[in-house]
Amino acid sequence: MLILDATVVNVALPHIDRALDFGPAGLSWVLNAYTLAFGGLLLLGGRLGDVFGRRRAFEIGLAVFTLASLAGGLAQTPEWLVAARGLQGMGAALAAPGVLALLTTSAPDDAARNRALALFGAVTSGGMSLGLLLGGAVTDLGSWRWTLFINIPIGLAVLSLTRRTLDETPLRPGRFDVVGALTATLGAVSVVWALIGAPDHGWGSSRTIGGLALGVALLVTLAVTETRVAHPMIQPVLLRSRRRLSGLAIIALVVGAQMSMFFLAVQYLEGQLGFGPLTTGLAFLPLTLGIFAMSRVTPRLLARLGRTPMFVIGTIGLATSFTWLSQVSAGDSYWSGAFGPMLLNGLSAGLIFMPATSAVLTGVAPEHAGSASGLLQTCQQLGGAIGLAVIVSVYAAGAQPGQFLPGADHAFLTSAVFSLTALAVAVLAVTRRRRAPVTALPTVEEVAEAA
Question: Domain count of the chain?
Fold first, then answer.
């Protein structure tokens, strides 16, 4: 539900514009308000769950999200809807890290944890395309307001079951890192804010450069602070593992690459092929079903193959799917132009997310599981923001008024480059581990001398 809400309103945006009279400049904030609050507050949400209890943080976040969904569905003005979307993002940022942390810490063994992570990866990556399907269905059959109202029964059902199925995690005594919380939140918000505006304002604009510079300065302050406080917002030990860092980089790059599917492919289906909202959502089923089908076998593949072969096959498959889409022509139909790449994309993405999530969360102490989950999901959000900004900029550079295909070929190839960069990260991580220095065994003479 939390991931789905990043895309569920996409296909309803024209209807929202007509109903509330947003105007072209303001309409993007229906999406951006949620992205900013969600991406900017994830690190804080993860740490709050570690300190005050993950079930409590999950329940509060989900309650805020559900109430904000009701408020958004009842919105009568643009400002009202944007504020509600921001509150949704705040609730999601508080609840989401707890979801992943509770999955990993409550699993009885590694096999159960891997199965849980595979399902989590399928829901996370498939939720965005399901959002298009659900948004198209309720918009066509009812009203755009149901893209928000649909969260209410789901949220109430989950809240009613939470205490029956989940135990509260132990509270962690100690002072809260206020400076870390402020710098992490404001730094992430500043970076995301600058990136989502880069396609409209330009990469060289004072808004983009200033926002990125401020964000980097705040994140550097966070890094310095975390090495000096007794109870840091982000445990430095989480960033000392090469395996974990490579997993975070792969997730960010793959999510960034996938943004072309949810920006360009939607435009191709609706603008080039003339699909309606519901038909567009149905057209994404190959991608969604590919992800879910792969989630059923990734735990066994991980046990048999290991992470690196899965990363290699998955990233090459993604790069191939984007290159395939870059060759779409005006004479192609859905079946000849989009179906095959979408199915390959879903299968390939499903092969990557679970082992990448496992690489990030394996070996994390239970008391830091929330922080690690927040860090993982922050990288997803930042990767998506960076990927979308770059892809939109590349597309705009070659676009021609009234036509979709000019510019789209280079934008899809940009996603292929993101995927191949993720492949390089996976291969380099393995190469560096193999080259790690090995302590030499003592010689016979040294043993004799010591004796």
Answer: 1
Q: What is the pTM of this model?
A: 0.82
How high is the pLDDT of residue 434? 60
Task: Over range 354-374, report the average pLDDT.
Answer: 86
Token pair 């396609």 in the structure block, residue: 199
CA 111 – CA 113 distance, rounded (Å): 5
Position 268 in a domain: yes
For 193-233, the pLDDT digits (tens) are 888 788 878 889 999 999 999 999 998 998 888 888 777 77
> Which domain, by its residues, includes 65?
4-435
Identify the residue whose tokens are 């496992």. 358
Does residue 176 lie in a domain region? Answer: yes
User: Domain with 175 in it: what CATH number?
Assistant: 1.20.1250.20
Euclidean distance between CA atoms 309 and 304, whole angstroms: 10
Beta bridge partners, 400, equal: 403
**Do residues 97 and 49 touch, judged by C-beta distance below 8 A?**
yes
The reply to whether 440 falls in a domain is: no
Grouping H, G, I as helix, E, B as strand and the rest as coil, residue 400 is strand
The answer to whether residue 443 sits within a structural domain is no
